[in-house]
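Inputs:
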Amino acid sequence: MNRSVRTSGFIWILPALVVSVGLIYYCIGYTGFISTLKWDGVSPNQLSVGFANYVQVFADPVFWQSITHTVAFFLVSFAGQVFLGLLFALLLHSRVRGAAVYKVIVFLPVVLAPATMAPVFRQIYAPDGQFNGVLKGVGLGFLQQPWLGQTSTSLPVIISIAIWGGTGVAFILYFAAMSQIENEILEAARIDGAGNIRTVVSIIWPGLRGTTVAIAILTAISSLKTFDIPWLVSQGGPSYSTEFLGTMIYREGVPLNAVGYAAALSVMLLILAVTIAIVLRLGGRERGAVNV
Amino acid sequence: MSFRSRRHSRPLALATALAITAAALAGCSSTSSSTASGSATSGTVRWWGWTPDQNVATNLITAFNKKYPKIHVTFKKVPDQTFGAALRPALASNVGPDVYNLLVGGSGASATIFGSKSVDLTPAMTKLRGSNWKTGLYPAGITDFTVDGRLVAAQVGKVAAGFLWINKDLFDKYNLTPPKTMSEWVSVCKTFRSHGLGCFKEGVDAAGFEVDTLHSIADSIQPGWWTKVIAGKAKWTDSTGVKMWQVWKQLDTNGILDPGALGIQQYPDANNAFLAGKAPMVQMGTWYRQYTSKPNLAAALSAAGVPSDTKQITMVPIPFPDVAGSGNTPGLFGDPDYALAVNKKSKNIAAATTFALWVSSTKEGQQVIANNLDEDPVLESVGADVSKLPLVDVAVQTPYLNTLAKQGGNVTQPRLANISPLLDESIKNAASTVLGGQASPAQAAATLQSSAK
């Protein structure tokens, strides 16, 4: 490629470069700068504290609680979404009447804004809400409890909402990936005597490994960024039992006006997100699952 | 020739770039002047606040426009929990509100932080009310909204808390009298629950309303201790502090507090349940008095999505019970509520100042505030005439409201003014851990004392 071609190419990518560098990387750099300050985000007085905010992050028990919740959230929501997404994809790949309607029903939660659904879930899981009503209705009244008002049940409630909202994506990805599996392979398996379960375990599931890795990456990153559901449904409580990095950043940055500390948490979040994405990507490659 | 022109074009390009940069920077900073701009009697004023309710703001603006018809005021209500998040970038930009609410203490748009972005209203106040402008205004509201010698906002009203609101219809229906002690409260709640109702609904979630309940409990144990401990003149680990957490826990174990308080939000959950007639008791302050008025209650029910044909409740204020059994009936404690700040970057500073000062410091504006019932006026010469208000039940509610007005005049303790966001968060955590069983009252007191240090 000669110089003129390279120059003209540079011009073509310039707008995207300006936007990405200007908006994204500048913001990241600025956040990094703020993370070295003790600042309320409004006052003209900014006190430089070096890496003190990062030291405070590592000493903060709520930070470690948030990390623990994020890991639990990722593991359970990933497993739930994969299981349900795969199940629905398998069912709808068989000849089901009204499959199009079912697809819409399964995917619908993905397009519903969490802000819209949060009050609904607050009502469903309220002490006098529908979930307790159903439990009582089916003779399980002894299980009724204030689901969002207990540290022992609030996180599972948040995870259940995330699974409800995210299964549609897993379903669509699996459904599309299953369409790529050659019919001849499936027919050969049948001829060799493989039943439904055997076909799923030995033929379909291995063929979906790349998709599963993609879902893992998406779920991991969304777990790290989780904010809307825990904040709108339980505000990170009670007693930080549904605190995630996102809610912690908001709590520190807005109500507590510790913008410098919140920026340090944001940088930690970025580092974790990039690290996990790289690890999962490399893990997927090692298994030969790059064709996502 | 071409070589020469290229040599000359480089400095020219550099100069042009510098000029453009300078112009851009000048453009960015041109609106940061804090000098009064625009006309004081005409223009557009955009007002942001978490309070008052939309219909109350409309009343206020309508009355204002009778005197200043050429100032067009729009009110944008932002939920209190997100107000600070919305305000911070808005004030950093050049298109933020002209007038915005500020408060003292607690978590939110506090005067000490967001006041740095507002105009010093002292000269305008002096011009309006003379050199003795402070005379006749609520002194705490002047002190609390003066930061570094600047009057960063003009107080609009004052509020008090430290009592309960009850649904009188439900109490009458089950022949119950307002509880005065813990045992009476327990008995009342047993009756309500036996009829499938809740009892005392409170959200111990994020907004910090449990602070009012804790303050009342502390006052029933030892009046004034709460104010001392907030000021650092007593310890959370004192016997009063530990007992306060014990009583707090008893509200739950004795069946007074509705289940799931840790997952309930005061707004909208407790508020909507009470106004819709589903919860017999809540702890709210004098701002809740506005819903004794039929139109205000109708507007609140409509905003809460309650069917319009729902029967309006007869709500009345009662003293907080002597839950400690020490013979002390807790009194009221209060603060200036919100104040109006004028954005330094506003293009209509003069008109915005006219509006802020008319609401806060003129008889006409303060009379509207008084008549709206959600705030007590800060101008001493103004008061609400309850007899002219469209109460839900005039005969029942009037005596209670008159008593409340008398008590409101005897407030000696601040409510949130001296509580920093961090202390507010620590108190909330202690309240959650005691209620949730993760900490004993003594442990919570010790943790709080440690945080307060």
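The mean pLDDT of chain A is 90. Flag for discussion at group meeting.
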